[in-house]
Structure formats: structure tokens, C-alpha cells
Task: structure prediction
Amino acid sequence: MVVDIRGLVDAKQGTVDPRIYHDEEIYQQELKNVFARCWLFLAHDSQIPNPGDYVTTYMGEDPVLVVRKRDGSVGVFMNQCRHRGMRLCRADAGSAKSFSCSYHGWTYDLSGNLVGVPSEDDAYRNEINKAEWGAVKVPQVDNYRGFIFGTWDPSAPPLLDYIGDFRFYFDAFADRTEAGTELIGGAHRWVFPANWKFAAEQFCSDMYHAPISHASAVLALTPDDQDVDEEVFPMDGTKGRQFSSELGHGTGFFVESGDVLANIVGQKPADWFQGGNPEAIGRLGDARAERMRGAHATLFPNFSFLPGINTLRIWHPKGPNEMEVWAWTLVDKNAPADVREAQRIGTGRTFSVAGLFEQDDGENWSEIQRVLRGHIARRSSFNVQMGLGHEWDDDPDFPGKVNRVYCEMAARGFYKRWADMASGMSWDELMASVRKAVEVSG
Amino acid sequence: MTAQLESSPVTSVDVELQHQIEQFLYLEARFLDERRFEEWLDLFSDDVHYWMPTRTVRYERELDKEFSASNEVAHFDENKRALEERVTRIRSGMAWAEEPPSRTRHMVHNVIIELGDSPSELLVRSNILLYRGRLDRDVDFFVGFREDVLRQSEDADYGWLIARRSIFLDQTLILAKNMSIFL
Result:
């Protein structure tokens, strides 16, 4: 029986059927129709600077190798030998001239082409056509401002069309200077026993949880002379904005607040991010370079980041009940050394497996997941109605469909896109609905 | 300085010092397991550096890149103030990863002492095994080794202060939903 996935999300009424987080059959549809079709974040340029440098990652549950080729371009192919399916490379990262399978020794070059087969003459009588047996290659790979993305779907729209109206907001993170950005070395990786959508949706749409879930961190990091509620985390939702894209992406941030960013990540990175980098002001303008504070964001489906706090992460699905978080810290290449150092420490101390903020997210998501083992729990829909019907699209500073910062508009957008994709809607239909929404909103 | 160097193929540290340092580390573990975090903080010098690098899976030829470097990201990269903030957080009653509290058992093994850079400092290496139970079913193990610099101090309640701690875990991907604990 195929589940009618589109019926599980009602964006108009603001309800979500909890089976989307738990059901194995839905999960398999999700791997096929979402993760094997969407543009997925793979790696940042700075992770693989030299020819032969590689990282291993996942697209959905499929392991891939991301390799800097000799011509400087990036090759992405299945981290799997075509002979018996063994994982080709078992390191997280490194540098290689070729990839040799540890089972029987089939060897692939930096592009994933099969170049060596042991005993090719004796065992195969020179009858194997190596050109047919290269590693399965990711058909579309693109690089936007140092961020490398790929999709398994040759018919997926170009990356920039896929990012669409979210680009204005992504650029506040990714396009701050001509020199661009780079990752600080090392990564935080850990496991949440919960469905990946809880995390992706929260980063897409949920400022509402912060004052409650992260109350202890806010308290610990707020200087004694500040009022926690009003100066740091305004509870007045008109002091911020949330943006939702028809493409499923979303973000939210304060525009009038105390220096929330400084309290989280430190004064130096906050000052640098909010106006301290003159080139960023020139490129992005005042609204994005100085007034987006404490922002959260998700690029559909599973790439999330916090501009200013400068963590970025992939939520890798590992079955319906588990995900892995792979998180990095981003800095402007032209950031002064003291800003870079303060960012390195401030981001890690707040958003990581041991982070003062992030420790508590794991408690929420894992407990939701455990409750969803119950039959009645799975039958009771979730409320995603905050701010329903109150959006506007003529904000002077922030383009697209926006709302107050405490809102679930972006969650509704995320889940609607997810349901449309997971149910198998074609790219023609998916992109037509986006064009139609843009036309309606003028 | 009480350390006595004697010729031995295995160790040059005398029994009394070995005993004293082991008891100090057991006391520290006890403070943590009994959630006496303020007393635990007092065991650290004001200039402490408490550090746990991240780790990646690497092939043998690149094992030197296994742990993140000091200028790269870390699980913990703390000074005294940052450790105090972590305790403030736990004591707030709203640190949901520790409210209800975890149940921890720190086991310290294989304590090996070497003389440090200065006459009043020791380099102490130990293996650590931390069992954590949380709520009704959560179970986590954190296993690794620690390199401490212990500084002898007349002002310290227990004679020694931890001036540096480096923690090297034997997991790359952390198989826990958080590290709201101390090692």
C-alpha cells in the first residue's frame, strides 16, 4: 500500500500528521523522491583545496566521494565499488591519487572511472569493458560561492533556480566578500535518535523554541547588567522577520534587538558580522549586513546554518528514527585573526554536541521520537498554525513572503514542499507551483 | 616538590606520589559523579585550558591529521570562565539535557606520571571511562585518555590544581545526543 503523502501535510490548515517522522514506508519514499532528487550540500571548497583531496559524505543514505580533480573541478561519485558493492573509501577525509577497493582491488581514478582490475588478462581474459564499470557518478554538481552541491536527478532545475528567492538570504551568509568564506578545520559530528525533519524544520522556522529550550544557555551567557528577555531575546515578534520560500527554504531573524549575537558567539565575531566588514555592507546593503541578528536558516531539505553564529550543518537521515549531524564553522576569508579565533571558540562552545545551546535540542527531538512509538501519539496531528494567514510580501527591506519572527509560516512551506516532493510530483509541477506563487504575490 | 626519581625500567615515580595523584583524580571523579560541580571547579587553576579536539577516521598514512589541531574546532576549548558558565547553565534548572540530571560514573585508570616542564608540575596521563545513564533508557559511554598538567599549590585545598587537561576520545562520530558531561 502506498501512503498518500500529500494528505499528511495540510499547509492551509497548519497541521502535520506525525507519521511523516516515523513510518518506514514514508521514509523509503523520502529517500527516493526527496533525497535522490534535491540539490544537496556536499562540501565546501576549502575542505578540498588541492588535487586529490577528498571528503566522504552522504546523499540521503547513499555514500559519496567528493574529490578535487587535477583540473580543479570537483567530481562526486558513489563511494561504492561496482564489482561487489564494497565501500571504496573508509576514511572521512584525506588525499589520494586513486581509490582502490579493499575487497578485490578494483581501482578508480579521481573522477570515479575504473582504471584498474587485478588479473584483468588472466581472470577476465581482457574481456571486461572498464568504461562501463566506473563508479556511479552524480550527474549534476555545482558550486555556489564555495558551497558545493549535487543532485542525483539529471532533470533537476539548475542550482540557482532551486535556491530561487532564498538566494537573497543565503547570500547574507555565503556572499559577503569577493574572497568568500572558508571552513575552520575539523567538524562536529554526532547522532540524534530522531527524524531529520525535526532539526531541518527548527532551523528553517523556529525562533519560538529559543527562549524556552535554550533558557539555561541564554542565562549563562548573558552579562549580569542585561535584561535577558527584552534586551537579548525580544519576545515582541514584530521585532523580527521570518521568510518562507515556495521552494521549501526558510529563515528567521531579529531586526530590532540587543546584541543577541554577541551574547551567543562573542563580541568580536558579532561586531565583524554586523557591520564590521565594510566589504560585506557594500555587497549586501544595510538590512542584510547589519540588521539580520541571531538568524536561523534551512536550505531545503537538510542543509541548515545560522548566519553570524556561523555554524553550518547537514542533517543526514539514518532511517526514520535517527539522524547524524555534521557541523562546521564558517569564517570570512578576510576576517582578522582575532575574529577568526573568537568565532572558532564561540561557535563550538554554543552549537556542537557539547554546545551550551545545542545540548538541549537533542533532548527535545529524541523525546518526541520516543513518544511517537505510541499508536495514539502517531494518530494525533501536530499544530503548525502560528502566524497562519498573517504574512505580507511588501516589506521594504526583506523581499518575498515574510511574517513576524515568531511564526510557523516557514515550517508550513518546508512541509508542503516536502510532501509535494515525497509524493513524487514532477519537477515541471514543482517549479510551476513556484512560478504561480511568485505571480500571485506580484 | 615531592617527586623522587629512582632508576626503574618502568617508572621513576615513587609510590607515595603515585598514590597521592591517583587519589586526587578519584576525588575529582567523585565530585563530578556527586554533582558537586562548584567543588570540582575549585580543582582547576585560574589559567586552566580544558580541551577536547574532534577526531576523524583517517588512513594510517594520515593519522597525524586524526585529531583537530589547536587552531581548529574542538568539542571543548574552555578557560576557567567558560567552565563556570557550563556549571551556571546546569544549575539553572532549565538545562534540559541535565534536567532531570544524568547519572554518571567516572572511572579513571592507567595513571602514568611524568615530571612536567617546571619543578612544581606533573604530566599525568590517565584513561577515562564515563558511563552515563539518562532518563529511563539512555545509555552512553565516553572512553578515551587524558593528558593533564597538575600543578602543586599550597593554596589549593587538595594540594594540586589541574592547569591543563586534554581529552582524546575514542569515538569520531559521537554516539550520543549531547555531551552535557565533563570528562
Summary: Residues 298 and 304 of chain A are 4 Å apart (CA to CA). The first strand of chain A starts at residue 9 and ends at 10. The interface with chain B takes residues 90-95, 184-193, 213, 215-217, 219-221, 324, 328-329, 341, 344-345, 347-349, 352-354, 356, 358-360, 362-366 of chain A (CB under 8 Å).
